[in-house]
Known about the structure:
Blueprint: H1 6-20, E1 27-32, E2 36-41, E3 44-50, H2 56-64, E4 72-76, H3 81-89, E5 93-96, E6 101-105, E7 108-112, H4 128-138, H5 145-152, H6 156-168, H7 189-202, E8 209-211, H8 218-231, E9 236-239, H9 240-247, E10 257-261, H10 266-275, E11 286-290, H11 294-298, E12 301-303, E13 306-308, H12 311-319, H13 322-337
Parallel strand pairs: 3-4, 4-5, 10-11
Antiparallel strand pairs: 1-2, 2-3, 5-6, 6-7, 8-11, 9-10, 12-13
Amino acid sequence: xxxxxxxxxxxxxxxxxxxxxxxxxxxxxxxxxxxxxxxxxxxxxxxxxxxxxxxxxxxxxxxxxxxxxxxxxxxxxxxxxxxxxxxxxxxxxxxxxxxxxxxxxxxxxxxxxxxxxxxxxxxxxxxxxxxxxxxxxxxxxxxxxxxxxxxxxxxxxxxxxxxxxxxxxxxxxxxxxxxxxxxxxxxxxxxxxxxxxxxxxxxxxxxxxxxxxxxxxxxxxxxxxxxxxxxxxxxxxxxxxxxxxxxxxxxxxxxxxxxxxxxxxxxxxxxxxxxxxxxxxxxxxxxxxxxxxxxxxxxxxxxxxxxxxxxxxxxxxxxxxxxxxxxxxxxxxxxxxxx
Length: 339
């Protein structure tokens, strides 16, 4: 499915606003524009603007752009915590497609928490293989079957299907010629990263193990632990804040860490922890997680002595780590993604 056209997103934004307003509130469409629609809500004229994924970056760009009307309501698929905070601070109302909303328009006040939206039937599905290929492409890999096989070690069929899904989602454009060496193009790298990160959050694995550590320097402590794992043949890679601290430093201090390891079950994670002399403990500050994709392991690299996951995965994991984590994620995108 190609990404929505301008008229489609205007109608989608209007539908989201109408869905959260009480039935007693009168709503009338005044005009539709590119990615926005003008409505009269209980007599108040308001510009309703579509924001896409609803991340902090999009909100910051919107808040610095000129507006046609003083009253604005922003609509997104799922508004992130950082985006919500920035909009609230600016006095701008918002709605997302989970049904969450924070709107004040004259006498109309709406505050709703919402709930996760169900996957629409027929929509191309993100899978671990699609995530892996998206990671490889975002890291600079050529969007061909052959190049993706080399980067991900997936089969030709899996790479072909993943590239097709990303194309159907409008995140890649098809090449004129066909074959395993024909390359697709990325029409909007920011959109690919945003939708990839949203899919990562939706597919977060439940299998994790929290262990206790007494490190004062988390990067040094994790590097030393990683060397113990390497001696016994255990693959690992840091993600989230600890990985970002060496790729694109932003947070002043890191007091916990997440790391991917080569294990699929709780028993496997416990065995990996024991290999490094670590024990599970409630409230521990080191979280062990299975590698979520093949590329998270294959494209991991050593930075300042710390093995880190590919930067798109680090970005995605930061985005769900609260407002400060999302700010660090956007800094990472600007430093690495803009190269």
